[in-house]
Structures are given as C-alpha cells and as structure tokens.
C-alpha cells in the first residue's frame, strides 16, 4: 500500500516563478523549467511575480493569485507548480482559489525522485521522504475528512475522524519504512567495514545534478551505469572496485546529485546513501565546466556538503565537459602544497582521464603516520589489534599499560579514530582532531522543526 502521491506523465501545468526581493538566494528559472520537465509536466505557460516578503495566506498577493486562477482556467491547466517552498496552509488556500492542484518546489523534487528510484532501497527512501512531506499536508484534497467513523474491528474507537485514522495509518507506515531502511543501513555499514579492513580507499563522486557524474563514473570504472542528460538521472549509490595501478585499488561510489535547497526530507531519508560520502577517503567534486552557473553550482554543492558533515573532507575537483569549452585544454591545477586540486577533463570523449587517474593515484598514494600511544591495561583488545596489524615499532609495558610507538597508513589511522572514539585520548605526542558529529545531530541542527 502506498500513501504518497506521484504525477502521471504529461500533466498540463502552469509554472509560477517567485522572486523575493528580501531573499538573497532565489531559485533559478531555467532550472525550475528543467525540474518541471523532468517530472513529466507539459508546460502551458509561465508566470512570474516579485514579492518583498511572502503573503502568510497565499504566499503571493491576492491579485496575483486571481490572475493565476484566470491563467489556469484559460489554458485548462491541471496543475500549478510554484518555484518556492509553500506552507501547507498556503498550498491549500491557493488550491481553493485556482481550483486545481498546487505543488511547491519540494513536492516537485520529491516527485522526480519517486520516478527515478530503481533499487529497493531507493524506493524505500523516496517513499519515506514523501510520507514525511505528506504528513504536514494530509488534509489537502480529501473530501471525507470530517466524517465520523463508528467503532469497528481494527479501528481505534468510536468517534474517530477519518483524518485521525489516516494520520495513524500514515504514522504506522513511516515507522515500518524507517525499520526497513535501518536494516539496509546496517548492510551498507557491513560492506564499508569490509572495505576498511582491506585498506581499500573509497572515492565518492559528488556534484550538482547533471554535471556528468555518472558518465565520469562509467569512464573511470568501464561500466555502463545509467547516465542521461537530465536532472537526478542517478539516485541509487553504485559501487565499483577498480585497480588503478599494481599498488593502488580504489572503490568508486557514484552518489545522488545535489541541487540548490535540497529538501530536508530527502537529506534525512537518503541518510544511508549520503553516508557513503561521509565515509569516503576522497571526494571527487564533479563540476559542469561549461555551465554559465558553474560558480553558483560549486557553491551550492559546498553548502550541501557542509550540511551533511562533509565540508572538511579532502577533495579533488573535476572540471568536466571541456569538450563544450572554446579552450578545452586538459590540465591539472595544483594547490599550495603542490597536490592536484583541479583536473580539466571530458568524460564524454575521454580527454583528461589519464591525467585524472594520475591525480587520483597521487592523492591516494599510501602514506603513513607515526604516533606515540599510551594504552591502559583495560584496553588490551586495542593493543592486540595493533600488534596483529604489525603497527607497533617500539613497546614498553608497566603495571598501568602499554607505551607504544606505532606506524599506520593514513587511511587506516583515520578509520581507527572513527571506530575507536577513545583512541584520540591515548595519543601522547599531539592532539588529534575531534571526530565528526553524528549524522543525526547534523540533521537535527539543520531542521528548523527541532
């Protein structure tokens, strides 16, 4: 049983683009059109409005709302899509006035995700995101909500309104989905644990949607994952193991594309997918170098990475689609430490891919860290683990514990710091960085409802 709504392709739609003068980060009109087309809408006409601040009742002014109703009637539209985030009451009030369904930007993106999900996990995540969104809009469009239901087997009791029953059923489905996604998340964690134990670094491809991530992923891994010139072509994380050279094997992870103002419901629901990004050893930030909006898109991706706790992770930027530039030269830009920072490539025709592989190998070359540790007797398991990995260079023992000098690959040391929270306190030759915040706390801080 599915509670969420989704479009049927080809719905006749009126687009309403809103520019808020009091807001610095308005949505892009061309991207709005592409989102509507990606959802399968047939765009009949566009309308634009400037607002200083949103109207609390209709979001737009009453006069503009009446004009919108006339447009809907004149074009026999079935849907109005608004390029802004509406409150549930604003959405309902607009629907009553224009006499057709109204969808805001968040609902539109959720609908596209519903169409794109292919894997079992992706479908679970999309349904959870849509149900969380629907829970605040449950009264919209229902004609039976004020009917009273008498007591009957399986219902809560006499006098329960249909709305209350719907909310109860919705809550039960959300709980069920969360449990199923938690099981998938545990399976993902087991897979990551196996990769970490084998010391195989993970490179996660991130970037603005339609920047060419999946095309680049296919070129680097010589596979045929789905790639298309459309927004959110890839939702489900795909992992491929590649031997870069005899000394270096890498796992590449192709992740969901980012977009400006990615709805909180999606960030929350796609937690297990985004954790592939958080657990990666290197982020490959893929940029559409030919896009006139590339600087803003880079900034938007950085904002999302910061929001999910990946803002300080090491990254290599890939300036893709140089085949569409006048000066489509392949080159590697280096940072102040002489490490590769940007590589200019064309995933479509293959130019620059050899240079990208060289840059990846240089960034992922196994390097080691040496630390002095004091491990108390109570932590003998950790001591045995370090001994078993051949990491101990020097050792002294007394009644309080072990005084060690160890040497480990950088990646393995980082994995141990994440796995053993007390390890940082055992370092006696300098402070270690504090581990990242738990994902749940990051989401809670981002969500204004908390």
From TrEMBL:
CDD domains associated with the record: HflX (cd01878)
Which UniProt keywords are listed? Coiled coil, Cytoplasm, GTP-binding, Hydrolase, Magnesium, Metal-binding, Nucleotide-binding
Q: Tell me the compartments it is located in.
A: Cytoplasm
> From which residue to which does any coiled coil extend?
167-194
- What InterPro entries does its record include? EFG_III/V (IPR035647), G_HFLX_dom (IPR030394), GTP-bd (IPR006073), GTP-bd_M (IPR032305), GTPase_HflX (IPR016496), GTPase_HflX_N (IPR025121), GTPase_HflX_N_sf (IPR042108), P-loop_NTPase (IPR027417)
SUPFAM superfamilies per UniProt: EF-G C-terminal domain-like, P-loop containing nucleoside triphosphate hydrolases
Instruction: Name a Pfam family for this protein.
Output: GTP-bdg_N
Keyword GTP-binding applies: yes
The chain positions of domain Hflx-type G read: 201-368
> What top-level branch of life does the organism fall under?
Bacteria
The free-text function statement in the UniProt record for this protein reads: GTPase that associates with the 50S ribosomal subunit and may have a role during protein synthesis or ribosome biogenesis.
Oligomeric state and interaction partners are given as: Monomer. Associates with the 50S ribosomal subunit.
Q: Which family is annotated? A: Belongs to the TRAFAC class OBG-HflX-like GTPase superfamily. HflX GTPase family.
> What is the protein name stated in its UniProt record?
GTPase HflX
Q: Which organism is it from?
A: Guyparkeria halophila
- Write the gene name: hflX
């Amino acid at each position: 049983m599915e509670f969420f709504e989704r479009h049927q392709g080809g719905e006749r739609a009126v687009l309403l683009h809103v520019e808020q003068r009091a807001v610095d980060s308005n949505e892009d009109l061309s991207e709005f059109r592409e989102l509507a087309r990606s959802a399968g809408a047939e765009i009949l006409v566009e309308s634009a409005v400037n607002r200083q601040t949103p109207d609390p009742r209709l979001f737009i002014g009453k006069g503009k709302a009446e004009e919108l109703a006339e447009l809907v009637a004149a074009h026999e539209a079935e849907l109005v899509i608004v390029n802004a985030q509406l409150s549930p009451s604003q959405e309902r009030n607009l629907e009553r006035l224009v006499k057709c369904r109204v969808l805001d930007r968040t609902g539109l993106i959720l609908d596209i995700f519903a169409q794109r999900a292919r894997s079992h996990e992706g479908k679970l995540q999309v349904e959870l995101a849509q149900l969380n969104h629907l829970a605040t809009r449950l009264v919209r469009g229902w004609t039976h909500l004020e009917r009273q239901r008498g007591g009957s087997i399986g219902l809560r009791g006499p006098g329960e309104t249909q709305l209350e029953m719907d909310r109860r059923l919705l809550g039960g489905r959300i709980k069920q989905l969360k449990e199923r996604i938690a099981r998938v998340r545990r399976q993902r964690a087991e897979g990551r644990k196996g990769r970490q134990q084998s010391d195989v670094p993970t490179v996660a491809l991130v970037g603005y949607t339609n920047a060419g991530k999946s095309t680049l992923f296919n070129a680097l891994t010589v596979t045929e994952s789905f790639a298309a010139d459309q927004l959110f072509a890839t939702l489900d994380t795909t992992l491929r193991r590649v031997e870069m050279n005899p000394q270096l094997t890498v796992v590449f992870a192709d992740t969901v594309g980012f977009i400006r103002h990615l709805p909180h419901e999606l960030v929350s629901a796609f937690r297990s997918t985004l954790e592939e990004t958080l657990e990666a050893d290197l982020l490959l930030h893929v940029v559409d170098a030919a896009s006139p909006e590339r600087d803003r898109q880079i900034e938007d991706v950085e904002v999302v990475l910061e929001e999910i706790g990946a803002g300080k992770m090491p990254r290599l930027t890939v300036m893709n689609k140089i085949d569409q530039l006048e000066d489509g030269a392949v080159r590697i830009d280096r940072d102040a430490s002489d490490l590769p920072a940007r590589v200019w490539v064309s995933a479509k025709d293959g130019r620059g891919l050899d240079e990208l592989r060289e840059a990846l190998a240089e960034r992922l070359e196994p390097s080691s860290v040496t630390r002095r540790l004091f491990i108390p007797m109570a932590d003998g398991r950790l001591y045995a683990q370090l001994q078993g990995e051949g990491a101990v260079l020097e050792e002294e023992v007394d009644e309080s514990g072990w005084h060690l000098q160890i040497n480990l690959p950088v990646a393995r040391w980082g994995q141990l710091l994440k796995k053993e929270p007390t390890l940082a306190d055992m370092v006696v030759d300098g402070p270690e960085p504090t581990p990242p915040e738990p994902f749940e706390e990051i989401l809670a801080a981002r969500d204004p409802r908390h």
